[in-house]
Amino acid sequence: xxKEPITxxxxxxxxxxxxxxxxxxxxxxxxxxxxxRSHGDLKENAEYHAAKEQQSHNEGRIQEIEDLIARANVIxxxxxxxxxxxxFGSTVYLQNLDTNEKINYKLVGKxxxxxxxxxxxxxxxxxxxxxxxxxxxxxxxSTPAGVKNFEIIDVKYI
Length: 158
Fold this sequence. Notes:
- The chain is of the alpha/beta class.
- It has two domains: about 70 residues, Helix Hairpins, CATH 1.10.287; about 80 residues, Transcription elongation factor, GreA/GreB, C-terminal domain (Chitinase A, domain 3), CATH 3.10.50.30.
- Helix 1 runs antiparallel to helix 2.
- The longest helix is centred in the N-terminal third of the chain and has 30 residues.
- The protein starts with a strand and ends with a strand.
């Protein structure tokens, strides 16, 4: 069983989701199944089949989260000696040398990645291209959208 790196925040979010789907969603689905069952003939009962499908999906997600938590290798970057290198969990401040745009990303685990929140998977093309680099390094990264050139402005362990 491979350990999955995850940030402290990522683990907390998984635990919150697990509590929510076990304690709130699961009983709601069970109630919906009971309600649909009371309507009689199950072969023609769309509500019953929809509720059963939702139950299956929910139970699958519970197993998935429990598995992720069991395999979690929590990495707290605030407790790591900051030598200025880009590592898992660090936040990297970049300047795109092609567009002059400034952007920052936090390198996170697969289940935490969310581009809208500037959380990128550490094994994505950009994540891989940044790992091990330092402040002021020039980085050329091949992405599906083409080659991008960045300068690392800063690396923070927050």
